[in-house]
Q: What sequence folds into this?
């Protein structure tokens, strides 16, 4: 019994609100297994996994920015249009002025930053709700795309296509796998182990309970297992393929933004603004600056996602980025962010994004029509958020807890270990 | 007047909330056609009593009897009491800003005709009612386009539309300027002469003295006395004595202040209301604080103490008009909250849940939130340092929690307040402004908070305590300023501070006497 309790308490790392994250990972695994069986093993083949990453990395990149926007208490409906607008500007500029493709990418990021500054200005400094600003942006930049591109498609150069359709080169001895992908996998394993050990060290320095060693080992083993499996799949595809470049860009972004939101002052200010903006302001947080940067950052990421999409489809068109905002917003909410702001994690949003991507992919593999795909995605979003709402109305709710309940005796309440050098005042009941 | 029959009698009303007895055995007798004032300090139970009367706290949630027009009544909700002719007008007016005067007067009470609203009849009736209350406006004017004084009149007209017999006004003049107040008081006299009974709750004792026929005084949820204004020769001093006449027992830790030089000074601080441009919330306020000194700010609700504090703290409230701040002999500009924190100011707000804390945070995150740079290197937060600081404060302030990883919502009010204090102590301030630091927390925790405040002063910091509880200010502070309608009206050293003197200074200025 105690081992199960240890597991329950520690498997997902921290102390707070892991039921939700566990629920998400559980759902993700269930979806993968379901489709794996349903498609007779097609889902987890190298070819399909590589396709999923290069096809849906844009949802995940958008989800990163959207998470921060939603945590700060806003929303961004314009991401699809911004992506399309950036795509056409970059494609057109490279075609007309024959810009080299790296300059094209920089131009795209600059366009994103400009659009973001425009939207951030209205949200942060004028005080127009982000819903309205970005609804306007959605129309504005969709129209802008069609105006600049004459509602036509504009092809992009070979070099530019690497960011969307490129793979790591084949180097070194012939191992039957893509060697660079193998190296990345190795680095990832080392990273996971290093992080786990560092986390134990930190908790020890904080005099907090450190999870039993066997749990850490188990956790590392599970993660290393997943990484090894993924590495072999991505490295073992058709010769000339590997983990896509867009996937690498995505991983770098996820790591950087996770670090930023979890560990830095700037990241914490975003949560503070979303949790209680007035309290944040009275604690010295520069409310306007935070709101401005969050909106601006979203547009830069949307621009990047747009360019990756254009690179993958090798041309920019008027239909690019249609209803991307919905995918990104759904990913964030499925990943456990609160509608009212202040709560949510990058990792959760990535899991939410993967759920959306795998649903799309699996249903497509099965030849389910886009009508049904939309219905199913809608229901998944609704149920995920309903679960969250229910969760809150019930206080903290643990899936494992509820699974275990039938087997559990009534536990005595945990001893309240408080050092009590008691005075009279200390003994007074504390109400309120 | 005393011979008039009794309209309303509330007999031994007792109302408890979980853990608190708000009303204990309260009696109230109101005669037909009089103006009956209810007086008491903040928290004495005035509003609760009126909520019991108007059915906000329905029958069954309190004990005792209400006898109205000779019959025992049991109101299940506000509608039931309104049907009986009892209408309450709250301090925050219940008008819809985007609707016209006519629409507001008949909101929820629309004259009907064949399934629709009879706007013609409504218009006609509205004009009659407006004339009765002396409101000279086009009935189609939108509420948001008329001043708050006229809005108050619309509320009264609305009450008349419901055929009111007993009108209850909660702080009707709190938001009004002098001319509007005088008009309203005249109107109340006129209403009385037409036979409508009213109950008025007000902190402005001069007004009460001027218009009330009978005064009932509540203190700590009990009826203290009922005074007949004319027969008993009641004046302000007499009312004050009834309101505060409780003994101060030793609810404060022993403390010998070590007071140094003046290090913080504010001169002629003037700030206007954020929305209405002609309303000053601080009018040329000047005061100073010495090192090691605990300075109190006494005043009634709405006197402008919080507004003063927040406008000093990085202009967080209202629109700054004029005034200067000196710290350690030099003038400082505090334009933003970060400026204020940088210059060693800290402001602990009166409403810790709404604006003091992020309720999604855990204890340690909250404690370091106002100065993250102290636990960060190159912008990256060091979780170990964060934890150690939080742990240090948990122990020194005796926050009762198993761990600093717990969410702040799991703490009791007193412990949440300690977390907020820790949050501001963490910024190493020179001057702490504590706004109602013991609101909503129990006696034991209050004692601890007082101890913390005294320790802060002993470290050479200045502490400003804003409180609505006079005994608290007298017991804790070395000096007390009184504030009335945005002005500092007096300065009382500890030795001379007594409730009656303070209450007198915080309910009137020589300039603004109402006849």
A:
């Amino acid at each position: 019994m105690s081992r199960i309790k240890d597991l329950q308490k520690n498997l997902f790392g921290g102390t707070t609100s892991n039921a939700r994250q566990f629920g998400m990972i559980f759902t993700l695994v269930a979806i993968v297994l379901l489709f794996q069986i349903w498609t007779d093993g097609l889902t987890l083949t190298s070819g399909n996994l590589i396709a999923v990453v290069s096809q849906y990395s844009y949802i995940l990149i958008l989800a990163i920015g959207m998470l921060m926007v939603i945590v700060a208490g806003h929303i961004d409906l314009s991401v699809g249009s911004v992506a399309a607008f950036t795509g056409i500007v970059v494609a057109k500029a490279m075609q007309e002025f024959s810009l080299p493709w790296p300059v094209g990418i920089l131009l795209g990021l600059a366009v994103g930053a400009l659009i973001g500054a425009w939207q951030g200005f209205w949200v942060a400094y004028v005080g127009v709700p982000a819903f309205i600003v970005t609804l306007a942006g959605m129309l504005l930049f969709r129209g802008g795309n069609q105006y600049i591109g004459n509602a036509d498609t504009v092809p992009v150069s070979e070099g530019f296509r690497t960011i969307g359709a490129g793979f790591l080169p084949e180097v070194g001895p012939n191992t039957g796998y893509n060697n660079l992908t193998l190296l990345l996998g190795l680095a990832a394993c080392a990273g996971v182990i290093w992080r786990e050990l560092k986390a134990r060290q930190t908790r020890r320095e904080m005099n907090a309970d450190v999870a039993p060693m066997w749990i850490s080992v188990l956790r590392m083993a599970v993660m290393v297992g997943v990484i090894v499996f993924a590495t072999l799949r991505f490295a073992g595809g058709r010769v000339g393929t590997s983990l896509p470049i867009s996937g690498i860009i995505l991983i770098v972004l996820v790591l950087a933004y996770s670090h930023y939101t979890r560990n830095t002052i700037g990241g914490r200010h975003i949560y503070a603004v979303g949790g209680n903006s007035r309290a944040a302001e009275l604690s010295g947080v520069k409310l306007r600056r935070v709101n401005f940067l969050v909106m601006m950052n979203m547009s830069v990421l949307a621009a990047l996602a747009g360019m990756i999409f254009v690179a993958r489809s090798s041309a920019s068109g008027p239909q690019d980025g249609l209803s991307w905002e919905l995918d990104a917003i759904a990913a964030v909410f499925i990943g456990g962010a609160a509608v009212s702001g202040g709560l949510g994690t990058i990792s959760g949003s990535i899991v939410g994004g993967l759920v959306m991507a795998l649903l799309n992919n699996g249903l497509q593999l099965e030849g389910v029509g886009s009508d049904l795909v939309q219905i199913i995605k809608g229901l998944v979003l609704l149920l995920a958020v309903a679960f969250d709402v229910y969760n809150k109305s019930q206080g903290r709710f643990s899936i494992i807890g509820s699974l275990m309940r039938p087997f559990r005796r009534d536990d005595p309440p945990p001893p309240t270990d408080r050092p009590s050098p008691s005075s009279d005042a200390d003994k007074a009941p504390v109400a309120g | 007047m005393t011979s008039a029959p009794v309209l309303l009698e509330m007999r031994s009303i007792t109302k408890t909330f979980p853990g608190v007895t708000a009303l204990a055995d309260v009696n109230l007798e109101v005669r037909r056609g009089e103006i009956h004032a209810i007086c008491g300090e903040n928290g004495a139970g005035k509003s609760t009593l009126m909520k019991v009367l108007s059915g906000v706290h329905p029958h069954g949630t309190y004990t005792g009897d209400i006898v109205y027009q000779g019959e025992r009544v049991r109101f299940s909700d506000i509608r039931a009491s309104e049907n009986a002719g009892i209408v309450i007008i709250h301090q925050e007016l219940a008008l819809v800003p985007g609707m016209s005067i006519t629409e507001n007067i008949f909101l929820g009470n629309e004259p009907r005709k064949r399934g629709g609203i009879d706007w013609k009849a409504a218009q006609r009736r509205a004009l009659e009612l407006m004339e009765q209350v002396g409101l000279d406006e086009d009935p189609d004017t939108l509420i948001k386009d008329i001043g708050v004084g006229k809005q108050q009149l619309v509320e009264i007209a609305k009450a008349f539309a419901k055929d009111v017999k007993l009108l209850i006004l909660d702080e009707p003049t709190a938001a009004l300027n002098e001319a509007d107040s005088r008009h309203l008081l005249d109107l109340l006299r006129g209403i009385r002469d037409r036979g409508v009974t009213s109950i008025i709750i007000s902190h402005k004792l001069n007004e009460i003295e001027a218009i009330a026929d009978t005064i009932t005084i509540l203190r700590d949820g009990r009826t203290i006395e009922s005074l007949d204004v004319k027969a008993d020769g009641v004046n302000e001093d007499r009312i004050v004595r009834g309101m505060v006449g409780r003994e101060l027992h030793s609810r404060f830790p022993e403390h010998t202040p070590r007071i140094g030089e003046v290090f913080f000074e504010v001169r002629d601080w003037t700030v206007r209301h954020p929305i209405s441009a002609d309303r000053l919330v601080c009018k040329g306020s000047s005061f100073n604080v010495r090192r090691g000194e605990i300075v109190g700010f006494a005043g009634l609700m709405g006197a402008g103490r919080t507004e003063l504090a927040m406008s000093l703290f990085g202009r967080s409230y209202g629109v700054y008009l004029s005034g200067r701040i000196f710290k350690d002999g030099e003038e400082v500009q505090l334009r933003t909250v970060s400026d204020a924190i940088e210059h060693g100011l800290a402001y602990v707000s009166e409403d810790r849940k709404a604006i003091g804390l992020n309720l999604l945070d855990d204890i340690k995150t909250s404690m370091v939130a106002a100065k993250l740079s102290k636990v960060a290197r190159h912008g990256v937060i060091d979780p170990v340092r964060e934890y150690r600081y939080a742990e240090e404060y948990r122990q020194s302030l005796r926050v009762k929690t198993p761990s600093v990883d717990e969410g702040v919502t799991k703490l009791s009010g007193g412990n949440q307040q300690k977390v907020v204090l820790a949050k501001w102590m963490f910024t190493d301030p020179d001057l702490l402004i504590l706004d109602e630091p013991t609101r909503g927390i129990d006696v034991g925790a209050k004692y601890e908070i007082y101890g913390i405040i005294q320790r802060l002063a002993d470290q050479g910091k200045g502490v400003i305590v804003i409180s609505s509880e006079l005994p608290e200010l007298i017991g804790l502070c070395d000096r007390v300023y009184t504030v009335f309608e945005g002005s500092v009206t007096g300065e009382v050293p500890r030795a001379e501070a007594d409730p009656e003197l303070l209450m007198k200074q915080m309910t009137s200025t020589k300039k603004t006497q109402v006849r």
Remarks:
- The longest strand of chain A covers residues 154-155.
